[in-house]
Amino acid sequence: MQSDFAANSEYQLVAPIAPRGAFSNASRLTPKIEIQGKEHVVLVPQMTLMRSRNLTSNVSTLGETRSGLLAAIDLLFFGV
After folding, report:
1. Domain residue spans in the chain?
2. Where are the extended beta strands (E) located within 1-80?
3. N or C terminus: which one in the chain shows less Cβ crowding within 10 Å?
4. Helix (H) or strand (E) holding 67
5. Helix (H, G, I), strand (E, B) or coil at 54
6. Long-range contact pairs involving 58-65 (C-beta distance under 8 Å, separation at least 24)
7. Phi and psi torsions of 72, nearest 5°
């Protein structure tokens, strides 16, 4: 979830993803993304910190879904 500016941090902010089919009622809090040609949702309400050393690989970049992710974060934290 973080930019490369925080790549050397001890912790990284992460959000789990799940196959789109498992969440038939996706909402603004769970924006849709595509990874390797398959639809997923980002579970923004479940964001958490993980130690950087426990993150083994970068699955995808989400820059193209920035507006949906920011809308979910705004709704979660600010109610807008």
Report:
1. 4-78
2. 11-14, 17-19, 32-35, 38-42, 48-51
3. C
4. helix 66-78
5. helix
6. 59/35, 60/33, 60/35, 60/36, 62/1, 62/33, 65/31, 65/32, 65/33
7. -65, -40
Q: Are strands 38-42 and 32-35 parallel, antiparallel or unpaired?
A: antiparallel
38: left (phi over 0), alpha (psi -120 to 50) or beta: beta
pTM: 0.83
Task: Write out the CATH class of domain 4-78.
Answer: mainly beta
Closest Cα to residue 18, out of 44, 49, 54? Answer: 44
Which pLDDT belongs to residue 17?
92
Residue 18: the pLDDT is 93
pLDDT band at 32; cut points 50, 70, 90: very high
What span, in angstroms and rounded, lies between the C-alpha atoms of 8 and 11?
A: 8
